[in-house]
């Protein structure tokens, strides 16, 4: 293959060897609040490094990489909270890819960038659920990339960071992590560069949105990054928040083990959640973020197979985690997380 099998994150030898690791965590999950319930499978093919977005009470999951057969995918599936089952919808019209990003407005979904096995991509598409059609829009205006992060806030979509090509002189580029950010105006189908991410360049960072404020954290740049920032889209301003490791002399962060990459986030009850991903090995730890205090609390460990490159979404204030990879194998299971229920083992 032109790059590597686990292309999105240039995975370490640990993962390439196909060995499954689980991060250390508290053995007594009864100490933590939150309950995981298995909810079936996504689609016909397991996958890692897929994308997802939600419109009203329906989630959409597609693209990705089928590790077992070394195949990139472009199919898409929708999950309705009302029906409780998955349905295949129109496939993404571009090339099959993994490591792309997605976001959604109240009525449309958007997918772009990624890696097709040879190229870092910048094409960009809009999905209309009312007629199950995709429309190609103007290409992402930054460098082609994969492992970026994306969110929708203040009426615009945003894509930034990731792994792309950096120009070193007029006729030479080198692959490297990125820190630039771009906004997308749906009404005009146009891109505009905004303030670059205040933290260091990175790939496979995490992001979520609470009360019209975007949060971007962690990721990888030759090490696990333990910083976190919030973004004010109205004023185009990044603000650094407390680190997500044992960084301060104060005791509040003594047990923080949140830094990771290729993890997932979702929101529920006005709080943000991080789970799965890579932190030395595949993690099952779940953490809850309270924006009013800028503090994290550990919740019940993810009960599925430890994994990286999963997707997550929220429907009716309930979080869902689906798909992902473990060693040389892709996964297609779906898990629901209610952060306010008492833990019940394997229910």
From TrEMBL:
InterPro entries cross-referenced by the UniProt entry: Kelch-typ_b-propeller (IPR015915)
The keyword Lipoprotein is annotated on this UniProt entry: no
Signal peptide positions on this chain: 1-25
Pfam family, one: Kelch_KLHDC2_KLHL20_DRC7
UniProt keyword terms in alphabetical order: Kelch repeat, Repeat, Signal
Protein name: N-acetylneuraminic acid mutarotase
Species lineage: Bacteria, Pseudomonadati, Bacteroidota, Bacteroidia, Marinilabiliales
